[in-house]
Amino acid sequence: MKNLILIAIQGAGKGTLAKELSKKYGYVHISTGDLLRERAMVRDELGDQIRDLIDQGKFVSDEIIFDAISDKITSPACQNGYILDGFPRNMTQAVGYDELLKKVNQDIGIVIHLTVPEEILESRILGRRTCLECGSIYNIYSKDFCPKVEGICDKCGSTLTARKDDNLESLKKRLETYHEVTKPLIDYYKNKGILYEVESVDSKKTLIKVDKILEELGD
Ligand code: AMP
């Protein structure tokens, strides 16, 4: 099973797709955003620093990110394949990741670039609700992803919350950062011949398209 890197602007459905693929194929889902949010719950200097950056829609330092993912990707659980959701996010991370893979003799796998028209991003981001207990993701503006009972997780009954960084100001900052520092990754992986573009408007169709790519690659 080839490892996957998901690249997309926030709100494009990376998390939802990663969850579906890990359910279906057994990939380990590594979300740097989730790892950081977990670390940010710890009330110490590093936790406070991470929380502030996330809330403002700014990047956390590359050093913190590498600390968070290095042990994960070399763990026995990941040896059957993993999905990177939210990493790499800039060229320094992409080059550093190549070096890390070389050191541990692991293959990069393939990169899926999820594209989404910017006009639908706003409702995706502002309508997103997450269950902190089981990680399920909902959207209050979508009839397919709306929870059955407002504010309550269908799966475990816990309270749903909006992420603090899911607001218009933070979205604007994240869009700027994406265009400036994340987009160059697309050319980088295109030149390596491992990039696949998938439009992500309807999550079911997105999954079918990614399934087809994996099938064609023999995964
Ligand atoms: P996400 O859940 O992927 O939307 O990430 C939430 C936030 O975590 C981002 O807005 C950043 O502040 C931080 N973050 C996640 N992944 C990275 C990364 N690879 N590099 C820097 N910051 C990151």
SSE layout and pairing:
Blueprint: E1 4-7, H1 14-25, E2 28-31, H2 32-40, H3 45-55, H4 62-73, E3 82-85, H5 91-103, E4 110-115, H6 118-126, E5 128-131, E6 137-139, E7 160-161, H7 168-182, H8 184-192, E8 195-199, H9 203-216
Parallel strand pairs: 1-3, 1-4, 2-3, 4-8
Antiparallel strand pairs: 5-6, 5-7
Helix pairs in contact: 2-3
The structure holds adenosine monophosphate (AMP).
Describe this structure in words.
The mean pLDDT is 92. The protein is α/β, with parallel strands linked by helices. α2 packs across α3. It is globular. It has one domain: Rossmann fold, CATH 3.40.50.300. The structure holds adenosine monophosphate (AMP). The site of adenosine monophosphate has 17 residues, from α2 and α3.
Q: How would you summarize what this structure contains?
A:
Helix content is 47%, strand content 15%. The protein is of the alpha/beta class and 219 residues long. The strands form two sheets. Strands 2-3-1-4-8 form a five-stranded parallel beta sheet, sandwiched between helices. It has a three-stranded antiparallel beta sheet with strand order 6-5-7.
